[in-house]
Amino acid sequence: MTFVVTENCIKCKYTDCVEVCPVDCFHEGPNFLVIDPEECIDCTLCEPECPAEAIYAEDDLPEDQAHFLELNADLSQSWPVLTEQKDPPADATEWDGKPNKLELLER
Asked: Would you give the distance in Å from CA 48 to the centre of its chain?
């Protein structure tokens, strides 16, 4: 099992989760974070740290977010590892909770 970053992270990109990850499995894109499923050790530390509640255990993924499992795996292969917490985008709170953000994902 792995943990998966889902749609609500798009344009929010809080990095509180990165700070607690013991294995550096987070990768950073322009406006989204992903988890490398090969590196994730299922420690559960990141899920409660996400202010946007955008991280789920693979087994708990909402059906409409299931495609993010593959998206995390794919993007983690090309995006750089992120190991330190950063400030969120200035408009992160405005994007938190907005639906249908997948089309805004920058690769």
From this structure: 12
Give the number of other Cβ atoms within 10 Å of residue 102's Cβ: 14
Average pLDDT along the chain: 98
Tokens of residue 27, six digits: 């990768």
Contact, 49 vs 17, CB < 8 A?
Answer: yes
Number of H helices, E strands in the chain: 3, 4
Amino acid type, 106: E
CA distance 95 to 80: 23
- CB contact burial 75-95 (16+ within 10 A = b; e otherwise): bbeebeebeeeeebeeebeeb
For residues 28-43, average pLDDT: 98
User: pLDDT value at position 11?
Assistant: 98
Q: How confident is the model at residue 77 (pLDDT cuts 50, 70, 90)?
A: very high
How many angstroms separate the first and last alpha carbons of the chain?
25
